[in-house]
Write a structure and sequence with these properties.
The chain is mainly alpha-helical and about 150 residues long. The protein has 2 domains: about 80 residues; about 45 residues, no CATH class. It is built from 7 helices and no strands.
Length: about 150
């Protein structure tokens, strides 16, 4: 893939990201990235500035935007259809984990941690209570189905 094609693809994905996050409001999107307004965003869209790796990383750090550029291959990241847990392959589970926001990934890691691992500092007592209740309910359902 040549550089011009990559630059065009990044501009298209940036435009879709703006539509997705701020309903097309370039100024709001620019402010979301820490800029004063949308001028820098407009410059990237018209090609006078490059959509840099740093900008991509910043956009992909926004909740719900993980993988927007790196997994998109020219389109919005593919929507993941509902999947029954019993039918999920390890690859399906890994793809869904990678497509999840950072807070969702943290909760998954909290649930999957080993009993000997320390509880993360960010895990509040309320969150731990909800996660524990969910695990207890899942075990009860599993027992009833057997």
């Amino acid at each position: 893939m040549n550089e011009a094609h990559i630059a065009q693809q990044r501009r298209e994905l940036l435009s879709k990201a703006i539509d997705h996050l701020t309903l097309g409001d370039r100024s709001a999107f620019g402010r979301r990235l820490g800029f004063k307004d949308g001028a820098f965003i407009r410059q990237m869209l018209n090609g006078s500035r490059a959509v840099s790796e740093k900008t991509i990383r910043h956009i992909e750090s926004i909740p719900g935007m993980r993988g927007w550029f790196t997994q998109a291959e020219g389109n919005e990241p593919p929507a993941l259809p509902p999947l029954h847990a019993a039918d999920a392959s390890p690859d399906d589970i890994a793809a869904r984990y990678r497509a999840s926001s950072v807070p969702v990934q943290r909760i998954v890691e909290l649930v999957l941690r080993q009993p000997s691992e320390p509880v993360p500092e960010w895990a509040t007592p309320a969150l731990l209570s909800v996660v524990t209740a969910g695990l207890v309910l899942a075990q009860e359902l599993d027992t009833k189905q057997q």
